[in-house]
TrEMBL record:
Its EC number is 3.1.22.1. Pfam families: DNase_II. This is deoxyribonuclease II. GO terms for molecular function: deoxyribonuclease II activity. It comes from Bambusicola thoracicus. Belongs to the DNase II family. It comes from the Eukaryota. The lineage of its organism: Eukaryota, Metazoa, Chordata, Craniata, Vertebrata. It catalyses: Endonucleolytic cleavage to nucleoside 3'-phosphates and 3'-phosphooligonucleotide end-products. InterPro entries: DNase_II.
Amino acid sequence: MLSSNPQIYSCSLPDTFQADLPNLQKLCAGSRLPSGPLRRLSKLQSAHGEAFLHFAKSHSFVDDIYVAWVAQELKTDLLAESWQHSGQKLPSNCSLQYYVYNINLIGTPLNSTFHSIQDHSKWSVSMKEEVQWTCIGDLNRAAEQAWRSGGFICTQNKHIYSAFRSLVINYESCNDASTWI
């Protein structure tokens, strides 16, 4: 919460949890939390032992989270799906060691297809199937999103990866060409 410093619209925190969650209690009361780190990477583990990486950025980390941080930290090229219908869409980016390609076209198992401008989800998968990264988050690849707090949760679960990766039909290469998979 210190990195994302959420703006709370409505909140109800039962008395039982108030002592354990003092920062959430402050947010519910309308207070802002003290500034935290620009970004924070946390390693998490589920009750069943599954590993996750959580990327959280503050509004002060002004950059494309996909390119500047997630792809570089995971050490893999990413195919990124995000709503590309508002503001200034960011093109696929091949400027750093690991690239981020915008997905253009999604195909569902029922042979239905749709373009990214019709989809408000925010996720990415590794280009190479060997590493099987899947990330799901709350930031689009758009210039104005660089000033927003948010983040991604990433996993190498092969079933999640397979489900998301199989949806990708077409993506934008770095020379603006459309590439079919």
